């Protein structure tokens, strides 16, 4: 089974290697495709849960005054919305995409460490379950924001915080194991004929993301472990009376937190770098500059963390350094946006659903990038800090950035995963519904923030009422769009028309040389140099 | 060609990287303390052991304001004896804070200083301060706690006002 041409001949030989039947298939599986699907469905479930919390938040903010809930419960919703979306939805979704795609893209039969792969997935539902169970505990769920600053999360937090800490430990373990697995797969399982600069960009961005994960997640584990011992074992890392310092918590947290935001966006860059060349029917512009830009962003992400902390009282020299270092990130990111636009320049473009999502990603993510630059200006941040402007900024990069790319990737590779085609007409309706409503939802939040509305507050003064009303209506419409997305995906799996092996005319990549529905075991023999060159993005 | 095996060496590298980064999170604690002492970051004030001589420019005047805060239900009334002083950089000054324990119990507390603007913190040195040690307040006792400090002449000439604030925390034991 080395190339697409002889796959059909060997397909029925695979019969007895097929998946086990029933529930145990999913519990015991070590197959990268099964585990990829598990990750994606888990992430989607968490997306709906986190989305439900967001609906609660927007419902409360629909009108000024306290309508629906106690402020304490509102705080629990904002905290859990952030945690579930970051650790339960976006990150597992990317690991799921990585699992599904990386072995096929590098011509490997499976992930390098398949049993660990199973383990790193199956930790997740338990971690998510522990996190969600805190809602039903005495004192309620954590209510200190997803950034869990001390001493709010140590001295003044509910008892359920210890469950939150344990859940973060588990999520961290899962992510680190996932990252180790991807590094080992890319470096050891890659087809012997494939050089590093032959690798598709999704593989490159995930490899670099893996290094961010093994660098940053243990620091988060350290921060929550310090919280745990401060809360229960009498240490004083963040307690001023014992010689500790609450500001140090923010340093440790953001030393993790800033690489974390790139963990959630670098694989998105990879996805878009596949989709845009396909539908522009042109090779990707500037392949190697894309690789170097990704690596530069990853490096810079470790040395800019204190731009989240301009208001903690920093010497001017510190503010200047962190401001300039932050501005520097705009350079490699600008290179990427330039390359995507240049790829489309004079291309023979068509606008199928994945391309619509990818183009709107470039446009809307850039808006989020620009508001990020505004926030990175130390003197301006005094005005913007902890307002809705920040909320608007990170939702533009995480929803219309990270989530957009996940949806784009889902439509783009769904034919390869299922062997069937989704309903293009419905997918277009869904796209326009989502892209309009998401802007109605988040764009007014820029104005609210500039006018001074603080984030994480359940009530607001009357002058913010109109924009909040518009934002909430957009929020409900955006939330409802996911019902249609669920329908489109399930309809594709059940009733989709059969897809061809390469359903997109301009698509390149080893995964398209497999059968229409990628066979359960692919690339048992590595692909040839000729095939790799023919399918390379770097040409 | 065969696919490469995962060697033992590679395994060790992969597993030790996260362990090292976990250790690094803990290493940030002493690094942070040293960093704050050297740079005055976070308003950490410095300390001098002896009354050393500085070059004094009598014409240069700086206003130092004193503030007091208490946290977490600290039961002792606490405040500066004078609210502000006009000082000359390079000279040592003495002032004090007054604390009164209004309760029937002995209270132990620790004061944490902070200087603003942070660029002044590095040059604000103390010879004697009640914040160097924990303080014990007997029931209904009023104490005057002294503070002897100097602002070094190397301070940026543009800084004309400095605020020093103390935050008192209750210690359990």
UniProtKB/TrEMBL annotation, chain A:
Its main location: membrane. Pathway: Energy metabolism; oxidative phosphorylation. One of its GO terms (biological process) is electron transport coupled proton transport. It comes from Bathymodiolus azoricus thioautotrophic gill symbiont. It is a multi-pass membrane protein. One of its GO terms (molecular function) is cytochrome-c oxidase activity. Pfam families: COX1 (PF00115). The chain crosses the membrane at residues 38-59, 79-102, 122-144, 164-189, 201-228, 248-272, 284-305, 321-341, 353-374, 394-414, 426-447, 467-490. Gene3D superfamilies: Cytochrome c oxidase-like, subunit I domain. It comes from the Bacteria. Residues 20-530 form the Cytochrome oxidase subunit I profile domain. Belongs to the heme-copper respiratory oxidase family. Its EC number is 7.1.1.9. NCBIfam families: CtaD_CoxA. This is Cytochrome c oxidase subunit 1. One of its GO terms (cellular component) is plasma membrane. Cytochrome c oxidase is the component of the respiratory chain that catalyzes the reduction of oxygen to water. Subunits 1-3 form the functional core of the enzyme complex. CO I is the catalytic subunit of the enzyme. Electrons originating in cytochrome c are transferred via the copper A center of subunit 2 and heme A of subunit 1 to the bimetallic center formed by heme A3 and copper B. It catalyses: 4 Fe(II)-[cytochrome c] + O2 + 8 H(+)(in) = 4 Fe(III)-[cytochrome c] + 2 H2O + 4 H(+)(out). SUPFAM superfamilies: Cytochrome c oxidase subunit I-like.
UniProtKB/TrEMBL annotation, chain B:
Pfam families: CtaG_Cox11. InterPro entries: CtaG/Cox11_dom_sf, Cyt_c_oxidase_assmbl_CtaG. Coiled coil: none annotated. It is found in: Cell inner membrane. The chain crosses the membrane at residues 12-35. It is a single-pass type II membrane protein. Keywords: Copper, Membrane, Signal-anchor, Transmembrane, Transmembrane helix. It comes from the Bacteria. SUPFAM superfamilies: Ctag/Cox11. Belongs to the COX11/CtaG family. Exerts its effect at some terminal stage of cytochrome c oxidase synthesis, probably by being involved in the insertion of the copper B into subunit I. This is Cytochrome c oxidase assembly protein CtaG. It comes from Bathymodiolus azoricus thioautotrophic gill symbiont. The lineage of its organism: Bacteria, Pseudomonadati, Pseudomonadota, Gammaproteobacteria, sulfur-oxidizing symbionts.
């Amino acid at each position: 089974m080395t190339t697409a041409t002889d796959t059909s001949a060997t397909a029925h030989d695979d019969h007895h290697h097929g998946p086990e039947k029933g529930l145990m298939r999913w519990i015991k599986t070590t197959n990268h495709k099964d585990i990829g699907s598990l990750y994606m469905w888990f992430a989607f479930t968490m997306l709906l849960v986190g989305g439900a919390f967001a609906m609660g938040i927007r419902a409360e903010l629909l009108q000024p005054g306290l309508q629906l809930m106690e402020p304490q419960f509102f705080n629990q919703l904002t905290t859990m919305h952030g945690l579930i979306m970051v650790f339960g939805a976006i990150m597992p979704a990317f690991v799921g995409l990585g699992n599904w795609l990386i072995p096929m893209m590098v011509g490997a039969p499976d992930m390098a460490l398949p049993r660990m792969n199973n383990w790193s997935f199956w930790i997740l539902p338990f971690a998510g379950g522990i996190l969600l169970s805190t809602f039903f505990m005495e004192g309620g769920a954590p209510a200190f924001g997803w950034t869990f600053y001390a001493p709010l999360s140590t001295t003044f937090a509910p008892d359920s915080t210890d469950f939150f800490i344990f859940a973060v430990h588990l999520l961290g373990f899962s992510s680190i194991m996932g990252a180790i697995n991807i590094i080992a797969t890319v470096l050891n399982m890659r087809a012997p004929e494939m050089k590093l600069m032959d690798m598709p960009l999704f593989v490159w961005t995930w490899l670099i993301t893996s290094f961010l994960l093994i660098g940053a997640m243990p620091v988060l584990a350290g921060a929550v472990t310090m919280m745990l011992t401060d809360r229960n074992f009498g240490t004083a890392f963040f307690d001023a009376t014992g010689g500790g310092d609450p500001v140090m918590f923010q340093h440790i947290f953001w030393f993790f937190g800033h690489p974390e935001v790139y963990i959630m966006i670098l694989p998105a860059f990879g996805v878009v770098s596949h989709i845009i060349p396909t539908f522009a029917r042109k090779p990707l512009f500037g392949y190697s500059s894309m690789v170097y830009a990704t690596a530069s962003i990853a490096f810079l992400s470790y040395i800019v963390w204190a731009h989240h902390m301009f208001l903690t009282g920093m010497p001017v020299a510190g503010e200047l350094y962190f401001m300039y270092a932050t501005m520097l990130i705009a350079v490699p990111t600008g290179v990427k946006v330039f390359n995507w636009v240049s790829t489309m320049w004079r291309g023979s473009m068509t606008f199928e659903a994945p391309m619509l999502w990818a183009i709107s990603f470039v446009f809307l993510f850039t808006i989020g990038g620009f508001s990020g630059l505004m926030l990175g200006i130390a003197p301006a941040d005094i005005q913007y800090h902890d307002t809705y402007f920040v909320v608007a900024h990170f939702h533009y990069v995480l929803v219309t950035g990270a989530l957009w790319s996940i949806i784009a990737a889902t439509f783009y590779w769904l034919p390869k995963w299922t062997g069937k085609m989704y309903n293009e007409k419905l997918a277009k309706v869904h796209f326009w519904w989502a892209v309009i409503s998401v802007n109605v939802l988040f764009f007014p939040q820029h104005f609210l923030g500039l006018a001074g509305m603080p984030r994480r507050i359940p009530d607001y003064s009357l002058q913010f009422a109109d924009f909040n009303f518009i934002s909430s209506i957009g929020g409900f419409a955006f939330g409802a769009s996911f019902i249609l997305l669920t329908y489109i995906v399930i309809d594709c799996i059940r009733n989709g028309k059969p897809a061809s092996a390469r359903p997109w005319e301009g698509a390149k990549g080893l995964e398209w040389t497999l059968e229409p529905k990628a066979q359960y075991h692919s690339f048992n023999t590595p692909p040839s140099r000729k095939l790799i060159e023919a399918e390379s993005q770097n040409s | 060609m065969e696919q490469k095996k995962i060697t033992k060496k590679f395994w060790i590298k992969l597993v030790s990287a996260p362990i090292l980064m976990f250790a690094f999170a803990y290493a940030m604690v002493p690094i942070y303390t040293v960093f704050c002492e050297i740079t005055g970051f976070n308003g950490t004030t410095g300390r001098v052991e002896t009354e050393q001589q500085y070059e004094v420019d009598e014409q240069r005047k700086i206003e130092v304001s004193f503030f007091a805060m208490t946290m977490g239900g600290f039961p002792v009334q606490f405040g500066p004896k004078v609210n502000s002083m006009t000082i000359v950089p390079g000279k040592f000054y003495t002032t004090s804070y007054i604390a009164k324990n209004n309760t029937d119990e002995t209270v132990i507390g620790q004061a944490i200083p902070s200087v603003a603007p942070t660029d002044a913190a590095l040059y604000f040195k103390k010879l004697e301060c009640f914040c160097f040690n924990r303080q014990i307040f007997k029931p209904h006792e009023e104490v005057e706690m002294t503070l002897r400090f100097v602002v070094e002449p190397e301070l940026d000439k543009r800084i004309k006002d400095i605020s020093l604030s103390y935050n008192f925390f209750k210690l359990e034991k």
